[in-house]
Amino acid sequence: MKVPFVDLKAQYESIKTEIDTAISNVITETAFIGGKYVKAFESAFAEQYGVSHVISCANGTDSLYILMKMLGIGEGDEVITVANSWISSSETITQTGAKPVFVDIHPDFYSMDETKLDTAITPATKAVIAVHLQGQMCAIDTIKSICDKHGIYLIEDCAQSHLSELNGVRAGLTGIAGSFSFYPGKNLGAYGDAGCITTNDEKLAEKCRMYANHGALKKHHHIIEGINSRLDGLQAAILGAKLPFLQQWTAQRREKAALYNKYLSDIKKIVIPTERTGSMHSYHLYVIRCEQRDELMQYLKERGIETAIHYPTALPNLPCYTYLGYHSSDFPIASSYQSSILSLPLYPELTEAMISYVAENIRNFYTGNQTAASNEETVVASAS
Question: What is the pTM assigned to this prediction?
Answer without folding.
Answer: 0.94
